[in-house]
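We emphasize that the prediction below concerns an isolated chain of 165 residues; any contacts that depend on oligomerization or on bound cofactors are therefore not represented. The input was used exactly as deposited, without trimming of termini.
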Amino acid sequence: MKSCPKKNERGKWSGIVGKSRFWLLCVILAGLIGSPACSEINEHNTLYPEKNRGELLLLETCPRNGASDAALTTVVRMLFNKDLDPKTVNGGTLLLGTGRWHVKGDIFYDDRVVTYVPTVPLDPKFQYNMFITAGLLDEDGLAATDDLIVFTFTTGDPGLLTCRW
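Result of the prediction step, given as a token string:
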């Protein structure tokens, strides 16, 4: 890896190999945006190293967290802020039910949206938890910072429509 340009004891820039445009751009960007420092450029010559990438977050759910009128035939959808590693989107990382038992379902993933389709109708007036474990990884292999993400909804009366988004 090339060294970043630095000022020497006389205040002159050194370490610019062959007056590379990349290093000049690095100095300009580091001065304009203040962060990241040039020393944080990784081996792929990207300005933001892995530690500065955004964490995996659950942005939106359907039904919404705390909903009290979900349909018995509801399809659970989860929108994440980043693309996921499709190999980790499975029944071991996404569980619908309670802490003691889980509802079997089919899981689909497309464009940051995970869809959990229960294979049986849900019980009326019952509280369900959607558990998302730390085994669910983003495309870079990073997990959410929480060990377990849980959102809760309660089913309503038969005949309610499922939410859409």
